[in-house]
Structure to design on (262 residues):
């Protein structure tokens, strides 16, 4: 039986017969695909919540997509048996200990089975999102590009403070407009706000509100720095809806610090 497939809009089209310099990095600090899309320039694909990788050679795709020839070099395999197998594995062996939040079903909600086509070579990845960089110089193996959506927002992006329970939390906001955020979220989660709690004169990001697409609809997701989902909202939301969650967390931190004598 042929699998369903889905076209995704990507910021780069390549001629797979001319694409060279293909390298796949599978390292603890960074898993990515590097390639040269043309005679000059470098491309790199990085992953949001990378889970699994498969590589094979050949002239025909390893997955029998129903409408493969209408696709460019990237396709999403729908109803993927591989993704279901990975979810079953994680559920059986890790269940509530999956990641830090125990939400193993996020694999079925937000992960995709990606198929990347190069010259007589195919790379399959299961992940929650992808990001494509094109540069004039090769990027370092573990270095994320300056505007990569998975990087923390810089301190210079601070727009306000939240003051509650004798603590201060810096609010850092994305500078991208709504249409750009929605377009980019087709590929991977986009930061809307980072919340950096100031403790002992040191501001560290404790929560992020990010935008992602789920079943074609935009969802704003508030997560802790450990990846635990604190709240989800339909569409793009502003600070008003998120602030109570941050203040509640600040209260917990303040009470803990009092118990520690700080």
């Amino acid at each position: 039986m042929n699998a369903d497939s889905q076209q995704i809009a990507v910021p780069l089209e390549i001629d797979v017969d001319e694409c060279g310099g293909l390298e796949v990095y599978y390292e603890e600090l960074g898993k990515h695909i590097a390639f040269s899309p043309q005679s000059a320039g470098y491309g790199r694909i990085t992953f949001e919540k990378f889970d699994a990788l498969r590589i094979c050679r050949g002239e025909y795709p390893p997955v029998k997509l129903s409408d493969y020839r209408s696709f460019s070099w990237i396709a999403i395999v729908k109803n993927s048996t591989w993704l279901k197998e990975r979810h079953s594995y994680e559920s059986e062996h890790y269940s509530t200990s999956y990641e830090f939040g125990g939400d193993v079903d996020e694999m079925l909600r937000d992960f995709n089975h990606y198929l990347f086509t190069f010259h007589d070579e195919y790379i399959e990845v299961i992940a929650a999102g992808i990001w494509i960089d094109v540069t004039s110089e090769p990027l370092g193996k573990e270095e994320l590009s300056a505007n990569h959506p998975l990087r923390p927002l810089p301190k210079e992006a601070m727009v306000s403070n939240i003051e509650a329970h004798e603590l201060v939390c810096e609010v850092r906001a994305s500078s991208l407009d709504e249409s750009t955020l929605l377009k980019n979220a087709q590929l991977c989660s986009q930061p809307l706000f980072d919340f950096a709690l100031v403790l002992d004169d040191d501001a560290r990001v404790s929560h992020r509100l990010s935008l992602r697409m789920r079943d074609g609809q935009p969802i704003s997701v508030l997560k802790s720095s450990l990846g635990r989902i604190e709240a989800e909202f339909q569409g793009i939301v502003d600070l008003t809806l998120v602030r109570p969650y941050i203040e509640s967390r600040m209260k917990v931190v303040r009470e803990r610090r009092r118990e520690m004598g700080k």
In short: The radius of gyration is 20 Å. Residues 75 and 115 are 5 Å apart (CA to CA).
